[in-house]
Design goal:
The chain is mainly beta. About 10% of the residues lie in helices and about 45% in strands. A hairpin with a 2-residue loop joins β8 and β9.
Length: about 190
């Protein structure tokens, strides 16, 4: 008699993981230039009259090793944060920008405990975390405000040990960054 094939368990739709990464190395760069879209109009599809003429970017790349959770401890991470004044619409987005709209463009609401509350279409995340195939290594790229990158650079220059705390949300096969903190206290000990 043949044994029945065991059923595969389907992973839940979403899984949240809080990662703690000890930063071992950081690289930094700052750049300024005239907005290239004004010289090459074929690439200026997202420029408008209020776009900055001078593009300034700060890029920090953190390399480190996960210390938490245990199942990911020892795996290498490389996270690049990129702050630019050219992406003001994304960095200055408001909650009202993700409120669901009906076919007439009016905000949608639902009733909850007798009150009308807004319905939102939240973004999937702030950036993606990708596993490097065949290696215990992960990479991520995250656009943030220039203020965040400047503050992060100040922490890098403090001379203290640094840790990244990443709130990761896995949805189907994608891993999204829901939140990020650069700190001097190990998040695994909090």
């Amino acid at each position: 008699m043949n044994d029945p094939v065991p059923r595969r368990k389907h992973p839940s739709e979403e899984e949240h993981t809080h990662l703690a990464i000890k930063v071992e190395h950081c690289e930094a760069s700052v750049e300024t230039r005239i907005e290239p879209g004004i010289y090459q109009p074929q690439y200026a599809w997202d420029l408008d009259d209020d776009s900055p003429l001078y593009r300034t970017t700060i890029q920090l790349t953190f390399s480190g090793v996960a210390t938490y959770p245990e199942r990911r401890a020892g795996e290498a991470y490389e996270l690049t944060i990129y702050g630019s004044n050219s992406d003001l619409r994304r960095n200055e987005a408001m909650v009202k920008d993700v409120q669901a709209r009906n076919e007439h463009g009016s905000p949608k609401f639902r009733t909850y405990r007798g009150k009308q509350i807004p319905i939102y279409n939240p973004p999937s995340g702030m950036g993606l975390i990708d596993k490097v195939r065949g290696e215990p290594r992960w990479t991520a790229w995250l656009p943030v405000s220039r203020l965040f990158t400047s503050d992060a650079l100040a922490l890098v220059n403090s001379g203290r040990s640094l840790f990244l705390a990443i709130h990761e949300r896995r949805s189907k096969r994608a891993r999204w960054i829901q939140g990020l903190s650069l700190q001097t206290i190990d998040p695994a000990e909090e």
